[in-house]
Amino acid sequence: MTPRTGVWLVGARGSVATTTVVGAAALRAGLLPPTGCVTALPSFEGLPLPRFDELVFGGHDVAETDLPKRAEQLVQAGVVPGGLPESLRADLLAADAQIRPGAEAADCRVPGDAVEALAADLADFRERNGLDRVVVVNVATTEARPQAHPARDSWRELRRQLWREAPPGEEPLPSSSLYACAALLAGCPYVDFTPSAGIRVPALEELAVRQRLPYAGSDGKTGETLVKSALAPMFAHRALRVSSWTGTNLLGGGDGAALANPQRAASKSDSKARVLQEALGHAVDGGVHIHHVPQLGEWKTAWDHITFDGFLGTRMTMQFTWQGCDSALAAPLVLDLARLMALAHAEGVHGPVAELAFFFKDPLGTEEHALERQFRALVDWARGLGAAR
């Protein structure tokens, strides 16, 4: 029997998840090429990665709009080619049938009960479909940054906290961390594609090591920050000192609406800024400014203004504008991460997978932010795993 890998998407009816499922189905049917899929490059040829037609999709979501309808909405937004959802309707319905109701932390009297239910959904998905493994990827809406809590510093203490009723006024563990906990307890590799807390809670990182599971994140690098991670090393290697780098982001869609909340936007802005400081070797003025423009729909525009000093202190500037569709940029990376994490899990890799830094703004397990070095580390790591088979 051909081995199959499950891809469980947290936020399974959102724009990124829907585009991922549509894209995988189109690749399986041979309707479109794998444009944007890093693992389809020649550097990864011959590796024992699961094929696109070996991926089985499911997920959690609190939304009720089914995948065929969401896909049609993305056609209207110019993200998905017209006619494609109808051609792939059977695949979309099959994936939608695997989606289970999600959980909101604020609604959980005893969070541990929700974690157990979420983990049971994962185990059931794996067993019903005869899957070798299930990779969980969080592509849900960005959350506000949680406050530190001593009980979250060790798995023993967090477990006690989860399986009791929270006292009035206590901030609950974020929903993203409940999903991460469920994934680990169900024996699933986990990927944070958002800047939400997710697995970045000391107790959950400890649990991942206990369970001998790989995890990766966070905050997928899809647009403006991708350009930053390529450009910033250029300034550093040419000894041109950057004094300011200001980014203005105009976002539509659900992501834009969520990031209109300053607390939610803080997580995104921090991960974007970290790339520059690490790549340049020093802090710069400017920062990132995020604005919600509903009329942009699924699209976004980023305008960056850079000032830098050349020889004799001559002040110079550089500007660039990035316009793109985040869902179409993110979806192929979700497929890449699912394939690579499946290989890592099969080879017994556990703990933070630093070699996947190429995909993230704020990578776990490494301080390397230069794009070319990240890519070389990724290829060497993946080929090393492939050679071990």
From TrEMBL:
Domain Myo-inositol-1-phosphate synthase GAPDH-like: residue ranges: 223-327
Q: Which residues form the signal peptide?
A: none
A Pfam family of this chain: NAD_binding_5
Superkingdom, taxonomy of origin: Bacteria
- Known Gene3D superfamilies for this protein? Dihydrodipicolinate Reductase, domain 2, NAD(P)-binding Rossmann-like Domain
Q: Which PANTHER family match?
A: MYO-INOSITOL-1 PHOSPHATE SYNTHASE (PTHR11510)
User: Which family does the record claim for this protein?
Assistant: Belongs to the myo-inositol 1-phosphate synthase family.
Protein known as: Inositol-3-phosphate synthase
**What organism does the UniProt record list as the source?**
Streptomyces atrovirens
